[in-house]
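hi! just following up on the protien thing from before. the input was this:
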Amino acid sequence: MRWIYFCMLILISFPAHAAQSVLGDLSLEEKVGQLFMAYFHGEEVNAEAKHLIHDGDLGGIIYYNKMNALSSPNQIQKMSKGLQELASKNTHPIPLFIAVDQEGGKVMRCRMGFTEFPGNWALAQTKKVGLVKRCYSAMGAELKAVGINMNFAPVVDINNEPSNPVIGSRSFGNDPEQVLELADQAIDGLHEAGVCAVIKHFPGHGDVKIDSHVGLPKLDKVMADLEKVELVPFQALKDKTDAIMTAHILFSDLDDKMCATLSPSVVTSLLRDKMGYKGLVISDSLTMHGVASLVPSIEEAAVQAFEAGCDILLFGGPYLFGGEIKNELYAKDILFVKEYFLEAVRSGRIAEEKVDEAVERILALKQRRGLDFLEDLTSDEILNVVKSPQHIGLSQEIVYTLANQQIIPSEDRLELIAEKIWKNECGGSVDGLTSWNVGEEFASLGIGHFIWYPKTKDKKYKETFPDLLLYLKENGVALPRWLENVKACPWRSRGGFLAAKNSEKMQGLRRLLSDTTALQAQFIAERFQAALPRLVEGMSITQQYHVLTQFKRVVNEDVGLYALIDYVNFKGEGLQESERYQGKGWGLLQVLELMQGGVYQKGAVDEFIEAAKEVLALRVYNAPPERNESKWLVGWYKRLETYSGEAL
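and the predicted 3d structure came back as:
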């Protein structure tokens, strides 16, 4: 009978009528259970899960790494199947929402054994049409394969506060229209995979400096400003998304006492009445400090969130206050909250009609998205989807797109970069264009002190001057005849090089180099551009996205391109063994790896300078004592400080 009952639920043509039909058969306890979504402790179905689903009639479960391991696709699928089997044995069997935060980037609960995709900021940076939809479709397909039917994504917050500690790379950007366009694709992708999409965090978490997990952010904006920025994606996507998640933020123009999750002015008056939203509203976790600081207990938070207009009450993660874990929640705690809620209904504080309206929305969505009790899948069937070659290829396509984007400086900017590099390497003098430093086994030529080895010397560092000569020829420069076919530096030692300082060959070489400074700068820029794909080759996806993100942060600042180009020319890419002492490198790669700033955090170039200083100090520490490299450190630091100068 239970299976027949649920088949009726999913086969009736009109969701509202089907939901109403089921609703009429449910007891008050069952209806209130549908409003609750919580976690349990365990890597497989256990007594606690059974307590929540059989005794609590819970309508949804959320997964976390700490509580549920999420150690492999097979483990998750088995757990999901077991949970749905429990739900199928209830008096009125209704499939569970099984939810997770799978945004890509730093917020990916399902990571072990799954394809790693970037966060929204990196996706937006690709500027590639349709890529967001494909990415979210792949993420959704992998979730669906392991029994997860609801994704708390995409984030549609407009990140217009650079120091925001909790959104950052989770946002598509600081332009409302761009966020709207890309979030629209993300929802399409999840729907294509058959997974519920939940946009968050209403009415906007992007313009604050406090993380609502550990504090109560406050946003002092008038409604007119919210309508131009924060509310844009919510308004446009309200009829497309499956649900909207609220934010634990105080919006003083709407409610100066309660955060959005607990505010009828925000959830009911604004979202439902003014904006016309008719779908499901899910609270952000009621265990977070942003809520806990405003109410005396979690059970009171649940009642007030529902009174404000939330349909699903989320209990995700331990109870936090001031960033500290006060206590973990177990099944007995969730059922205590449920009993408190039931008493609020029985006493008349909450109207049962309001409960019915919320449950009807929940049941309608479960039917519309075709939730079921899951079939057993073999490992091979799961792996045909999860981390499939197609999905890995898509992730690599994103990396390739980011790494190969052309950065083309204007001619004026290139000339300024050339001038600064010339000054750094040669003191800005023509004589400095032909040098051979003490202790080196090669000539240093041109504005970038390009390396040229004599035939008899081992090439410890990457030789670049022959490549420059070829580049000049390809760009129509007539080389002195003696340079046309020469294979190696004709001066075999520093002494011979200095003795030839005023020779006809050397004077001709200096004329060539002083006449082509702009082309040399262009050569450096193109060499730098080609370095980025090599930097991330062979890394894990996580490492690749980190390096690319830090690179984008630096290059997006006014003086950033000069800093990156000069450092590659100055200390190399950091890929060769010759650019390492005791296994520790000092090139661009090592500097970017050391940086940790958020994508919107200002001061990327300043952070680059400090990271470079640390990397170079480590080089000196690891260098062979006989090289006495500490004598150069002050000069290196002075060069790095030129990166913090005026914009180029």
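The longest helix spans residues 517-536.
Residues 411-644 form one domain.
cheers
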